[in-house]
Fold this sequence. Notes:
Number of strands: 0
Order of helices and strands: HHHHHHH
Amino acid sequence: MPNYTKLEKEILTPGQVALVAASRAPAIGALKDAALYRAIAEIEAEMTGASGPVTEGRPGAADLLATALRRLHLERRKRKLPLAPATKAAGQQPAGDKPSRAVASSAARRAPASSTRKPAGRAKAETRKTDLRTGSRRVAKAKAPATQPASAPAPAPAAQPAAPAEPPAPTVTPDASTAAANEAKSLRKAARKAARKAERKAARLAQMEAEKKARTAERKAARQAERDAKKAEKQAARDARKAARKAERAADKAKIEIAEAAVELKKTRKKAKKG
């Protein structure tokens, strides 16, 4: 907004100038809510008697006051205040106002409900008979079985005489054939055990021998591979030296040929000069 401070002092009254100055920062920020509402009301009251613009292109007193009023309302909206301050609590009835008795009496008096109208010519409905199927039924309770008297305790069995003790069984000594059979069985068992032991030992020896041969063959193959690698390396070195000597001889030969060609060229030039 443009600043019309000088113009305000010229065309406004001192009281209006003070109100307009209060609508600008920082004075407007220092106003309390009640003072802000009071300033809005005073400017609105001043605007009713203010005149319009007196010169074309120049704002008048009413315009300056309207601008100040806009600033005050902007500050009110920033503070989230209502348009007008709340003077009475919500729902409070002013003194002297009484509820209308006519409304209450009219609400209390109601027209009685009219009887149901029946269309002409309709016959009267017959009275239904009572449905006997829906009558109450009683279920006879089963009688509890009669309690039987407690039976008398059974008589104790008569004591029986103790059986005579049996004589001890006679000791049977093994004969010679049974002892021989047992000995033969023990010998067969020992033979089978020895055979299994010998078999396991032979298997271990065979495995150890196979592992030994495998390690020997592995070492032999490693040594042979090492020898072959050294041999191949020596052969490659010989081939490289041979190729280098051959290249060196070829280079020497080329140098000789170049020198001879140079000599022949000199001779040809001399002959050409003499001729």
